[in-house]
């Protein structure tokens, strides 16, 4: 800090100790005497030296790595190095925008440094000598890739699966839920019928359906795992059709009784109208969920059996996200006409018809991929295509 003597021998600072309009990273006013200086500069220099060390370590060796370990031609490697260099030198524009508009320079530097730290171990691993994959390793990888089309075509069912705990419940909450005078069944309790459907149908499936199918198909399991999943996908489409018809009936009843503008009114239509869609939902679960469990567990390599069990759950998880995305997009495009807070003015029936169509498209794609799928008998499968 610069100082100068006065006439009486006292020393005063040439610069004010507090920097006007400046704050530190905690939002406190900046003081020249205890902020900044070489202590802060040392950290900045250390970060910059580390970053430059990593950058030039990559840029100087990249063409050798591309032509050596990756086996690229010199021309291709040069193109890739130039593309990498161009990207690296353009990205500071994005970083500067983020720093100025959102995060600030301090947080942006911290975030970028963390990315450097997290990615560096992967670069180290790329340089490690790895044993060559065996033929069995390659076949195991191919087995997983063959599952992706089946996994993808089951997402339509997963979107339908997400509706039981959302719109089905809201739909039932607007209807007459009286069981006997003085008692109303909670709307969320309607999902009880899904469990009842599963409990009743599983013994019927094992005792009657499988023996009858076995006599027709000569298959030990009656039907193959893919046929079981396909049946569930078809039932999920039927479930959406039934739900759409019930919702159309509910909206018509609300209109007839002049309840369209009354969101809190109970539509004089028994909630038992919804029981069929819940029962069909349960039947679809029996075929699809159990079918996916068996299929993915049976068809993954022996070393990945735990992953096989998680595959079917990942279908449900991704389907929930897709359902959320679909609702968000439709809500913005339709301007609250499909998903109005007043369900008597909404059009859940349109959404159900859309899901029925998506399930039928998914079923068609599933049938296409299933026809060409060859069961991997070497992984313990007892079924054939």
From TrEMBL:
InterPro entries noted in UniProt: MFS_trans_sf, POT_fam
A single MF term (Gene Ontology): transmembrane transporter activity
Entry keyword set: Membrane, Transmembrane, Transmembrane helix
The keyword Transmembrane helix is annotated on this UniProt entry: yes
Entry keyword annotation includes Transmembrane: yes
CC terms in the record's Gene Ontology section: membrane
Similarity field: Belongs to the major facilitator superfamily. Proton-dependent oligopeptide transporter (POT/PTR) (TC 2.A.17) family.
Membrane topology: Multi-pass membrane protein
Subcellular locations according to the entry: Membrane
Stretches that traverse the bilayer: 81-103, 109-126, 147-168, 188-205, 226-246, 278-297, 309-330, 350-369
Superkingdom of the organism of origin: Eukaryota
Lineage: Eukaryota, Viridiplantae, Streptophyta, Embryophyta, Tracheophyta
Major subcellular site: membrane
Name of the protein in its database record: Uncharacterized protein
